[in-house]
Please model this.
Amino acid sequence: MIIGVPKEIKNNENRVGLTPGGVKTLVKNGHSALVEATAGVGSGFSDQEYIDAGAQIYHDKEKLFLDADMIVKVKEPLACEYDLFKEGQTLYTYLHLAPNPELTKALLDKKVTGIAYETVEFPDRSLPLLTPMSAVAGRMSVQVGAHLLQKYVGGIGMLLGGVPGVKPAEVVIIGGGVVGTNAAKMAVGLGAHVTILDVNNARLAYLDDIFEGRVTTLAANDHNLEEAIKNCDLLVGAVLVTGESAPKIVTEDMVKAMHDGAVIVDVAIDQGGSIETIDRVTTHDNPFYVKHGVLHYSVANMPGAVPRTSTFALESATLGYAVKLANMGPVEAMKADPCLRLGLNTYDGQVTHEGVADSLGYEYKDPMSLF
Model:
């Protein structure tokens, strides 16, 4: 199979779909790798390293898409890339289709086999290809929040962990999954007072156990949300419904009740955001805006700010499936692996993930009925 690795073009996205090591693995399996010139530079990989690993360097993105059977990316294609798709091509990347009807239509029109990292799912409902980036984003959410709380940035001027004799910041995390757990690790480590809200009582019990009483856990009902949010300094949105648009958990009235200079970091923005006042996606160049006196951070590619860490972490999870897709072909690979099959969002002009279909109003097609 011919695998293409284009350069990411999202704002300040410096990750890359494959490292030279990943290329070497695919080449050893008998496949060809085409890498766009300078695609890996942001993550610290030179074109020569890719050449040494067995890749061909392409200076023409359009030709790379034309020649490749499978495109391996990090982030969803942008509108200027939609015309590059060719019929029957496999696209293996984060797609986040539920809030993106335009990309969904482009994939359906070109009959692209769209495999989304974020919906590959194990039987225990864990998301192996999303987990490493969720861990990065969760940890970054607290770093970002601590920065934005500084007065010169626009925050209230509070040190997250306080100092002896001065109380620490109140950090509220909505969602106790991978993002929320990693956010809590960072916030607790910095000395903040942390409250985690979730709808799953078993998850709350687990978090209470692993943090040994150093966090407050609350059921995510309206009353608890209102009380926790109005007193918080940093709010982290960490809500996920696999494949679907994120539910709007935090209302505008809840945000209005927050004090001036408080900070919201919504990690769920990739799936549309879980905060009602998050009405736009921001970028690393211009990462936040102020509404009702509260700083809102809604950058959709947070891990792109730490690409060296993120690229290695992502490839450690995605490479095995990339090899399987190349060795067996996408259809046979998905027939053989039901976990990978859950990653299939579009195939032969049909929507093949229930969450995407429900969010965008398409008819869902069981992929096994289409192969």
